[in-house]
Amino acid sequence: MKYLLADHAAALIDRIIMDQIPAGSRVLDLGCGDGRLLCRLRDEMGASIQGVERDPKAVIAAISKGVPVIQADLDQGLDEIPDHAFDYAVLSQTLQQVIQPENVVNEMLRAAQRAIVVVPNFGHWRIRLQILVNGRVPITSELPYDWYNTPNLHFLTMIDFRALTERLQLRIVRELPIVSGVAKAGLKLANLRAESALFVLERMTNEVIPITIPEPQKPATEIESDSAV
């Protein structure tokens, strides 16, 4: 399970992630794909690595590179990973594709001391402009899907992600807006200008904040029809 990015763009994001991880760290990559990032962490930084991936073909590709991989669905939890077994858990361009993002982030910080999360920023000005001008779900280099075949289940902005960390009582150790594959620390109007963003997270306390899933609302007996806008 991995967000679709061109190889060059993915390599730039990988480099930004690697810059947050000290050499020799224990790293868990969730939604590791073919193991590209983990290979670099192992070969260039001497990291101890472990991947988790749902797609069978990607699992085989990662194993062929010597990457240890657990085939699992992130939404089913990480029961095979002991508490605090890793220094860093990485989730790159995948959070918006899982059913319960809160649970996945909680699991990351159960399995590791720190979490590195990279998310696409749906608040970027180009996305806003396309919606305003065309009145349709936008297609951009960062959002390269038609609405009916996108793997994305959730559409979040940088502001939305910060709100999630507050809800889960997490500390943002570092926030890096990303523009054209370059990390821009301290970028002004980041929620408008950044195409994606990297967050390094840790817990404020050892207590995991429980997630309450709201009950679905009962359908209304009468539905008023609105004209298209």
Automatic annotation (TrEMBL):
One Pfam assignment: MetW
Superkingdom of the organism of origin: Bacteria
SUPFAM superfamilies reported in the protein's UniProt record: S-adenosyl-L-methionine-dependent methyltransferases
Protein name in the entry: Methionine biosynthesis protein MetW
